[in-house]
Amino acid sequence: LLSNHGFLRLRVGHRVPVLSSPDTDRFAMDHAFSFADSQTIFQRALTLYFRDILHDRRQHPTDDLISQLVQAQIDGEHLGKMELLGFCIVLLAADHETTTNLITNAVRVLTEDPRRWQWLVQNPDAVSSTIEEVLRFYSPFQAINRIVTQKSQWQGYSLDPGQQMIVWLGSVNREPVGI
Fold this sequence. Notes:
With 179 residues, the protein is mainly α. The protein has helices at residues 21-26, 37-59, 65-71, 81-112, 114-122, 127-137, 169-172; strands spanning 73-74, 77-78, 143-147, 152-154, 157-159, 164-168. A hairpin with a 2-residue loop joins β1 (73-74) and β2 (77-78). α2 (37-59) crosses α4 (81-112), α4 crosses α5 and α4 crosses α6. It starts with 20 loop residues before the first helix and ends in a 7-residue tail after the last helix.
């Protein structure tokens, strides 16, 4: 799970079929880089890596998200190279960030109250529902921005097209009566 430096490795997040399994082994890099020069090196490495993967998926599609992105069309046109590279990098970062937050939050929940850990050890069939509950209660993303697309009302407030809203997922997931 952790590299010899104690940093979470990117390969942990690849349970989502962004990449097929041989690619996850090829792209097991530590997420520990100094900010200045290493960030540029890392960005170049990602770009080259995904450029090769995108080329390969055009020629030989597999059952992964990148193959679906390469084949996707909007108004009869495929996404451009820069759009595809951007999607790939964002998906990798989002996958890694979500997984890291889930692991951290699960460890937090299970160590704050040792009874929870003991209960889970005695009830291993509850692991999946425990993970779902950690995701619900400690959402990896606390808020998301949205733009109103049509005139509407919400809880007595008038919303006009173009207005920005922030949806506080962390709050909504703890609301006892729902929304």
